Amino acid sequence: MEKVFALIGDIIDSKSLKNRKDIQNNLHKLLDGLNQKYESSIVSNLTLTLGDEFQGLFKDVECVLLVMDEINLTLSLKGINVRFGVGYGEITTDINPELSIGADGEAFWFARDAITHIRKYHF
Q1: Are the C-beta atoms of residues 81 and 11 closer than 8 Å to each other?
Q2: Taking every pair of C-alpha atoms in the chain, what is the biggest distance, in angstroms?
Q3: Count of structural domains within the chain
Q4: What pLDDT was estimated at residue 48?
Q5: CA distance linking residue 121 with residue 118, whole number of Å
Q6: Residue 24: its pLDDT value, please?
Q7: What parts of the chain have a pLDDT lower than 70?
Q8: pTM passes above 0.85
Q9: What's the rounded Cα separation, in Å, for the pair 51 and 8?
Q10: Are 41 and 70 in contact (CB under 8 A)?
Q11: 3-state secondary structure of 1
Q12: Helices and strands: H and E segment counts in the chain
């Protein structure tokens, strides 16, 4: 099975942010734009999975880094900080290219471990 890069992003202290609905709408639009811009490198579209979290699957790490930079820059200009976790490995379930929900495998496990570690040590 081919290995991919999983990216998980999490808005820091999202519960304390005002206008959460507007922030969610803006994040959704941002992710949609990035899905179009980097379509050729995306295995499964960046998808809002929870109110303050999103994830996607990528073919190459260069695209992951570009996407992280664009998300970080766009949101930081609005006073919103994001933590990211990246994992590399196999996906053991079917992959839906349109929505990055329901897939499972070591790429997501490693990305989730990174997010958990960052939260634990307050990065």
Answers
A1: yes
A2: 43
A3: 1
A4: 94
A5: 5
A6: 86
A7: 123
A8: yes
A9: 13
A10: no
A11: coil
A12: 3, 4
Chain-centroid distance, C-alpha 95: 16
- Which amino acid, 99? L
Residue with tokens 């609005």: 78
| Strand arrangement, sheet containing 82-90 | 42-50, 53-58, 3-11, 82-90
Contact (CB, 8 A) for 84 and 6: no
Tokens (6 digits) for 94: 């079917």
Question: Contact at 8 Å (CB) between 14 and 82?
Answer: no
How crowded is residue 113: how many other Cβ atoms within 10 Å of its Cβ? 14
Asked whether 37 and 27 are in contact (CB, 8 A), the reply is no
Domain region containing 38: 3-120
Q: Can you give the CATH number for the domain in which 19 is found?
A: 3.30.70.1230
Q: What pLDDT does 123 receive?
A: 64
Amino acid at 106: E
Q: CA-to-CA distance for 12 and 81, rounded, in angstroms?
A: 6
